[in-house]
Amino acid sequence: MPIKVYGTPTSTCTQRVLTTLIEKGLPYELIKVNLAAGEQKTQEYLDEKQPFGVVPVLIDEDGFKIYESRAICRYLELKYKGKGTELMPTNDVKALGLFEQAASIEMSYYDPMKGLGDPDEAKIALYREQLNAKLDVYEKILSKQPYLAGQDFTLADLFHLSYGNRLVKLNEGHFFESRPHVKDWWNRITSRPSWQQVLALA
Amino acid sequence: MGCSSSVSSSQPVHRTNNIQSSYDTRGTIVVYGMIQSPATQRILATLIEKGLKFQLKVINLKAGENLSRSYLEKQPFGTIPALDDVDGFTIYESRAISRYLEMKYKDKGTELIPKGNIKVEGLFEQAASIELSYFDSYANGIVTERIFKKMRGGEPDMNKVAELRRDLAKNLDVYDQILSTQSYLAGNMFTLADLFHLPLGSLLLKCGEGELFESRSHVKQWWNKISTRQAWKTVQAMA
Q1: Mean pLDDT of the residues in chain A
Q2: Which residues of B touch A115 (CB under 8 A)?
Q3: What is the pLDDT of residue B9?
Q4: CA distance linking residue B32 with residue B58, whole number of Å
Q5: Where among A86, A103, A118 does a domain terminate?
Q6: Measured distance CA(B145)–CA(B157) in Å, rounded
Q7: pLDDT the model gives residue B26
């Protein structure tokens, strides 16, 4: 039984999981959940797939079910450690600590910025101000190292791809373009074949 | 609030002036933060669960100490906490710090992340993500309005609170379901995924939002279990 992902190719959270599967060289089947029709809120979905009523959900080859995109990605890295790209450092406690720091930075300072599609002008102005301040810090960090956790590409960088892409699609790519090290980092991570493949699915 | 102090988990409190740059802290874990800060409390709880000695160097937010050049060198986002390990290794972000402490001091004190079984670890990661996705921002939003805003002389936006409370309530209904078949969020073992809820959960109770837990029998049981742990009681006594 192949790995099954329940989600959609345009969902930012599903994209995270698909990118990871491709980085690890893992075959999978994407089973589309009809978000427009509210399939994820049906009792059947809530009972059998994801009790909070969101996508994605992953069912592994042996039937093991896991949800929450970042948890799924971490699980795939743990389970398929030797396959494809290494996406989390192994063994070195300091390197792992710095990876966790970078993963938390993504959740604390970047993920909240997904509100940029908001129609409320005042809110958008606030988001811009906050995102600018935070990306200034990213610029500082990335001036000393190529990736957020250090020298190597990790899940901490990968987790940024889908919302960053949404920013660019909203014509807000200048947030990255205006900061030379952020720009370099963004170009590097978005040009990875795995991400290009996921974009082609969307 | 605002006084410098250093605290060791197993010794009487002694005071240290935290601007004495000549104070040698090598060999000690140093926490930079404030006892009243939820994020700082998260790592204090972890340190105490692991039985680790530490010193607290107060970074007074009101006085803007988090924006000093020396602090920004440690934590470039200017938020608290940050931690220096015994060998001078610096790390920030409370959940990252807690995970790091668990990895580094695996054999000390309480085990806080299950190891050895990939499915169990996966379910831990799922639970840790649940805290972030469905609890943290709602609880933080409510507590910011009802406690922190007031502290700064502002008035809470009770419409915003009502909206956040409604969303958090829906999510806690799911928690109640999950906790009806297992004792803790990741399974049958207490983990960091539960611990991470303690600071904001306690503040929710303090500002009169306890009904969110009390009205859901499995959530109530879970909350009672985790909030009466000795390590958490110790942290609360410090604040």
Answers
A1: 94
A2: none
A3: 42
A4: 6
A5: A86
A6: 6
A7: 65
pLDDT of amino acid B83: 98
Cβ neighbours of B115 in A, within 8 Å: none
* Contact partners, residue A94, CB within 8 Å, separation at least 6: B89
B105 → chain A, closest CA residue? A93
Q: Are B226 and B196 in contact (CB under 8 A)?
A: no
Provide the pLDDT confidence category of residue B50 given band limits of 50, 70 and 90. very high
Question: Closest-CA residue in chain B for A140?
Answer: B76
Assembly ipTM: 0.96
Among the partner residues B97, B126, B177, nearest to A68 by beta-carbon distance:
B126
Residue-number span of the structural domain to which A17 is assigned: 3-86
Task: Give the domain CATH number at A16.
Answer: 3.40.30.10
Residue A78 touches partner B, C-beta closer than 8 Å: yes
Which is nearest to A159 in space by CA: A202, A95, A105, A85?
A105
- Domain of A103, CATH number, reads 1.20.1050.10
Domain count, chain A: 2
pTM over 0.80: yes
Which tokens go with A127? 């988001």
Tell me the pLDDT band of A123, cut-offs 50, 70 and 90: confident
What's residue B167's pLDDT?
97
Do A97 and A79 share a structural domain?
no
- If asked whether residues A119 and A146 sit together in one domain, one would say yes
| C-alpha distance from B155 to closest chain A C-alpha (Å) | 19
